[in-house]
Task: structure prediction
Amino acid sequence: MKIKSANYIISAVGSKQYPETGYPEIVLVGRSNVGKSSLINSLCMRRALARISARPGKTQTINFYDINEQFYLVDLPGYGYAKASKEKRAEWGAFIFEYLRERDKLVLIVHLIDSRHEPMKNDQEVSAWLTALEIPYVIVGTKVDKISRGQRPQHLAAIRKGLKLTSQVPALVYSSETGEGRDELWQYIQDALPKNEALVIE
Ligand SMILES: Nc1nc2c(ncn2[C@@H]2O[C@H](COP(=O)(O)OP(=O)(O)O)[C@@H](O)[C@H]2O)c(=O)[nH]1
Ligand SMILES: [Mg+2]
Result:
């Protein structure tokens, strides 16, 4: 796996700011604090590509990262921030929906779930909603370094059950601390990219 370049492009607050290069997009979505920014940094082997926020849920932006000038990793705003108002939550849905509706180059949705806990109600709702889009969809259980090896299958099974995933939906575990799961996730990303893009990744 070779990352030749990884660059932050923009934190979009509206659709007019979305890039227009037409690259394929890999979307990351998850609860606030699930480890999305850490995963982006870990995937790209960069320490500070995505900001790791100590104050989650502050701004609702869609962040685009250009990888190898071939595709984008797209970081959607986290949902489920405990202190967010009802209005903010509705805003999340509308913003994300607009993005998902407008972009025709979405090739993979990566849904992050904290592998330590059973999926919460909003994880279930978002999962049902994302699956209905019929875009390739993969589950990533984050922070797996916090779980002993022996317990991992149980935790992954609990995620599957909680989200009512069909056996076709792949689920893997990830640790941004150790890099565990990195190669596996890149493989899914590579498989999701159009052939000519995939060739660039060694
Ligand atoms: N142990 C461990 N902690 C993590 C991992 N990923 C993220 N974290 C921690 O979880 C918190 C939230 O991470 P962040 O990436 O900002 O989450 P985001 O809100 O989803 O972008 C931070 O304190 C991170 O250091 C991981 O793989 N293992
Ligand atoms: Mg973040």
